[in-house]
Amino acid sequence: MMHFVIDSYGCDCTRIDSLRDVYEVILKLEKEFQLEPIMPPQLVPYYHCENQEDVGISAFTLLKGGHFTIHTFPRWGCYFADLLCDSKFIDSSKLKAFLTREFPASDFFIKFIIREDFDKNNMGDYTTQDFGPHYMITSKIPEDAPAPTIETYSLMLDGLPPRADMHPITRPVVLYDNVTNPNFLSGIILIAESHIAIHYNIKTREVMMDIFSCKRVDEQKYKEIVMDLFNGQYQDVLIRRGRRNIGRLETSETRNERYRYWQETINQK
What we know:
- The protein is globular.
- It is an alpha+beta fold.
- It has one domain: S-adenosylmethionine decarboxylase (4-Layer Sandwich).
- Strand 9 and strand 10 form a beta hairpin.
- It contains five helices and twelve strands.
- The strands form two sheets. Strands 2-3-4-5-1-6 form a six-stranded antiparallel sheet, covered by helices on one side.
């Protein structure tokens, strides 16, 4: 599976604060890169959070064995996105060209990761760190263990946020990729801190999980949770994402300044 990790800064605040624009970009992305969505995009406006600097839009769509997620922060002028898929038609440069065309930005970082073999990935190359951790986990369900079900993953995703000191802003969505002959069981929950997603390959019994948070995570608590979920049989890798001191905080003053810019031309400012 191919995993593209995307952090973008200096964005057009209006575009990433528009539910319609975000929705249309996800639909375009699916078609342009021949993805295999198993549901329409779901968007969640997050405008009533404790810290008003963190307002924005969280959106996702489940793909066949993967997902696309995007979390926008209009007042910071940035967004964080992830694309996990098995498509062979995507390269980083084309994905960057598409996203910077749809969401113009001054700084854009993208990292390509092979999920099946973390050893082939040089994590040291991805250096836009300190906003929050993104844990990528792989495991395999033993042959003598029961396979997960929709109920299994729904209960698990419902219970994870409070265990990890996170705050859900949706209930879990858990779906088979095909109604009659499924190959994957996938689930996701949006949290105030970003998202938790899991995908189970029915034929190979392999599991891929992502825990992405825009705040610090207690390392010991994380280890205990994952050890419990996978009975100690897993591989994981940590990517530290984002930049806090980006100096692009959008305020009412900066928005008003743009609006009043015309007054300079008539000497009324």
